[in-house]
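Predict structure. Chain length: 98.
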Amino acid sequence: MTTIEESAFFGCTGLTGLQLNEGLQSIGKTAFYGCSSLTNVYIPDGVIEIGDYAFGNCAKLYNVHIPESVTKCGLYLFSGSADVALEEQQTINIFVKQ
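Prediction complete.
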């Protein structure tokens, strides 16, 4: 699987941690929106794009690993989420709205 489709896990309250597989290239808009129990997310190298609101309204989300391969981040990626901490020395500096 190279893409997690738009709204694929929308409102899935049972997810608590997420470690995505190698080979993934994109995460669609609102893919994990409203996953209110999600606390940790590991996005592997090779992911290039994360869509708008992908992790929006994830109230307990705290720890996120985003690799340097990500070059396109949608708007409001963590909107409505708790205090998200990116892993040490991570910087996201490219935001593109298409």
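Summary: The mean pLDDT is 86.
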